[in-house]
Amino acid sequence: MAPFIERISNWSCIVALVLCAAMHLTTFLAPLAAIWILIPFFLVALAITCDRSIRRRLPSIEPVTGVGWLQIALLAYAVGTFIYFYQTTGGATGVGVRDGQYVSLYKSKVLRVISEEDFRRFPSLWTRVMSAWIAMMAVAGLRKFQAVVRLSQRPSHPRDWSVGKRP
Fold first, then answer.
1. Residue 27 and residue 23: Cα distance in Å, rounded?
2. What is d(CA 151, CA 167) in angstroms, rounded to the nearest whole number?
């Protein structure tokens, strides 16, 4: 049962990563409703649930590999998109229409009046930020899966290792 659960975890991370990349690129071209981000979110949640059900322990310190560098790069990009979002929206948590004007809101408090273009762009900006964060989490799930595969291929006892070769 564990190999099947590992495959589910791996494929849900891959599909979430592809969906996040597609959504992220779409936000640059056209408006995209923020509700679509729930699909990759639940896929990553499924991967985490599968990993927890196996309950395999990973080494506390793993060397940074190619996937690890991708995860670090995506984390930096996600932080950058969040900063851009915050600067662009002025810290708004939502948008709305009050007294016939488009406004940006922070916890139902009006921050400022915005243009119709900014009003329509807000969900896409939010989706862009969340897709970057979820993509980074999906890569982290893939990295964890690769570490589990490396551990399962490792000999069970250090005496079984070939001389001079460390896994």
1. 6
2. 9
Strands 101-106 and 109-113: antiparallel
Asked if residue 94 belongs to a domain, the reply is yes
For residue 109, the enclosing domain spans: 2-160
56-68 pLDDT, tens per residue?
Answer: 555 555 666 677 7
Residue 65 in any domain: the answer is: yes
Partners of 111 in beta bridges = none
pLDDT tens column, 19-29: 999 999 999 99
Question: For the purposes of burial, counting CB atoms within 10 Å of the CB of 15, is it exposed (0-12), middle (13-18) or buried (19 or more)?
Answer: middle
165 falls within a domain:
no
State residue 54 phi and psi, 5-degree precision: -75, -35
Distances (CA, A) of 76 to 14, 70, 73, 143: 20, 10, 5, 17
Number of domains present in the structure of the chain: 1
CA distance 50 to 139: 15
Position 166 in a domain? no
pTM score: 0.75
* Contact call for residues 47 and 13 (beta carbons, < 8 A): yes
pLDDT of 103: 93
